[in-house]
């Protein structure tokens, strides 16, 4: 198993865990960015490439499930692997419902952990250059208006843009979500539609 060139974000507030997991992943060829807070992860995702996000569930400020939902809203095709405490089945189910590729239980065992990582990456097939790209602030705002049921013409008036520009934005939003029509777009993001996700950031 060797994954040279693949970049993983690992989010956990425990430095010792970061050190062990980071070393384990680097030994099989991954580039690893270890982050202590979910907010740092969201910030980094706006500007840095990522092939897989691995996050612990229990963290201060923002837990792993909330991070998962925010990531799936803005970068829907990015695979996310969630790390849960032993026997925490309700949390694992919540993670899967929110779009996690899989979950792994602590304590982490090297082989099973790396197998879960490999499985999550195999499901990340990019079919368009825009798939897996984060939505811009403008696109987030337009998506919020789309979800509110606004037409292209109404959005253009509210945003002081041409209808053609709004149509272009809608196409880019759909491409980034990996769908080719608005019905599928709404279905794709319905599971993570939360007020805080729809605010301009």
Brief descriptors of the model:
Rossmann fold, elongated, 48% helix, five-stranded parallel sheet, alpha/beta, 5 strands, 2 domains, disordered C terminus
> Can you write the helix and strand succession as a string?
EHEHEHEHEHHHHH
- Give the low-pLDDT segments: 193-201
Apparent shape = elongated
> How many domains make up the coordinates?
2
Distance between the termini: 38 Å
CATH architecture of the largest domain: 3-Layer(aba) Sandwich
Q: Order the strands across the largest sheet as they lie in space.
A: 2-1-3-4-5
CATH topology of the largest domain: Rossmann fold
Rg of Cα set: 18 Å
Summarize the SSE layout with pairings.
Blueprint: E1 7-11, H1 15-27, E2 31-35, H2 38-45, E3 52-56, H3 64-74, E4 80-84, H4 89-97, E5 102-105, H5 110-122, H6 137-147, H7 152-159, H8 163-176, H9 182-190
Parallel strand pairs: 1-2, 1-3, 3-4, 4-5
Describe it for me?
With 201 residues, the chain is α/β, with parallel strands linked by helices. It folds into 2 domains: 7-122, Response regulator (Rossmann fold, 3-Layer(aba) Sandwich), CATH 3.40.50; 137-198, Winged helix-like DNA-binding domain superfamily/Winged helix DNA-binding domain (Arc Repressor Mutant, subunit A, Orthogonal Bundle). Helix content is 48%, strand content 12%. The protein contains 9 helices and 5 strands. It has helices at 15-27, 38-45, 64-74, 89-97, 110-122, 137-147, 152-159, 163-176, 182-190; strands at residues 7-11, 31-35, 52-56, 80-84, 102-105. The protein has a 5-stranded parallel β-sheet with strand order 2-1-3-4-5, with helices on both faces. β4, α4 (89-97) and β5 (102-105) form a beta-alpha-beta unit. α7 crosses α8. The longest helix is centred in the last third of the chain and has 14 residues, at 163-176. The termini are far apart.
